[in-house]
Design goal:
The chain has 307 residues and is an alpha/beta fold. The protein is built from 9 helices and 12 strands. Helix 3 (89-98) crosses helix 5 and helix 7 packs antiparallel against helix 9.
Length: 307
């Protein structure tokens, strides 16, 4: 079972083969890494530190080469979206400091979804900053239990448990220091998968920004024993909801989903609006829907053949 889990989770990264990304610049900081991690050889980019940078407006990238984490600083405290892998909290906070912001001013933690590669560092960051964690009820049990919902026995997928301080529903808002983010429930990848939208101003013009949860199947079972009850309908709901979304800026929690490092290279080369790419998300979500339909058909056929 463990081999199947580790192999199937690689489906997240099929986009990387055609993303055509450049390598990000080396970072000055190094994330704290667990002594042993079965994903280190599979996905080394998850563990490679990356130079933090300003994306657009007051939104900053503070994640690793392969895991997106975003900082939104305000005069009343800062908001952080996602926490990377277990043991990466210190590295994320070091990136915040490198940008000139005080990690102690992080007031709010948000999570796209309760999988170890995005929630793993939240407990460490929460303990260091005292920030409040806000999440959807669908992911509350997995966050607080530290497990991968539906694969609770696969401890290789565990994350440090972290307490949820406030629940937020679809359409709920989080505001701090003049910044407001809206939560959009986009379930399937996890039961409480939450995407976040906000506005960012660049050159006196506002742009719609989407920090998207995920829509890949990854290690999820769709049939005959679904990862959680209603997962197929949840994916279908999310595809129906997002199919026509066209945010100006698409920020993924895996950089290869949008070719983030290639875009960063364009920004460094002198294009301040490099991340304004309204075509990026529609292209991405179309690929995710096609992948979902293919995997659903394969899993369904395999279960019928086994009967």
């Amino acid at each position: 079972m463990k081999h199947r889990i580790l192999t199937s989770i690689g489906a997240i990264f099929w986009v990387a083969a055609c993303a055509g990304q450049t390598t990000p610049p080396a970072a000055e900081t190094t994330a704290t890494e667990p002594a042993a991690d079965p994903f280190r050889e599979m996905f080394p980019a998850w563990f490679e530190p990356a130079e933090p940078f300003r994306v657009i407006g007051d939104i900053y990238y503070v994640g690793t080469n392969g895991l997106g984490v975003y900082l939104i600083p305000t005069d009343e405290g800062h908001i952080l979206i996602d926490g990377g892998m277990p043991g990466q909290g210190d590295g994320i906070l070091a990136s915040v400091s490198q940008l000139g912001f005080d990690p102690a001013d992080i007031r709010i933690l948000l999570n796209t979804h309760a999988h170890f590669d995005h929630s793993g560092g939240l407990a460490e960051i929460k303990a260091a900053t005292g920030a409040r964690l806000i999440a959807n009820a669908g992911d509350e049990s997995a966050l607080e239990g530290g497990f991968y919902l539906g694969s609770e026995e696969e401890h290789v997928l565990d994350a440090p448990p972290v307490q949820v301080d406030e629940l937020i529903g679809d359409g709920g808002t989080v505001s701090l220091g003049g910044v407001t983010l809206t939560a959009h429930l986009t379930p399937g990848h996890t039961r409480g998968c939450t995407s976040w939208t906000l506005s960012a101003e660049e050159a006196a013009k506002p742009y719609d920004v989407l920090v998207f949860c995920s829509a890949s199947v990854a290690a999820n079972r769709l049939a005959p024993d679904p990862q959680y009850e209603g997962i197929v309908a949840d994916y279908q709901r999310t595809f129906g909801l997002t199919r026509d979304w066209k945010p100006d800026v698409f920020l993924p929690n895996h950089p290869e989903f949008s070719g983030l490092w290639e875009t960063r290279a364009q920004q460094v080369a002198g294009d301040p609006l490099a991340f304004v790419q309204p075509e990026k998300f529609p292209e991405f979500i179309a690929r995710m829907e096609a992948e979902f339909e293919t995997i659903l058909a394969k899993q369904t056929a395999a279960s019928e053949a086994a009967d």
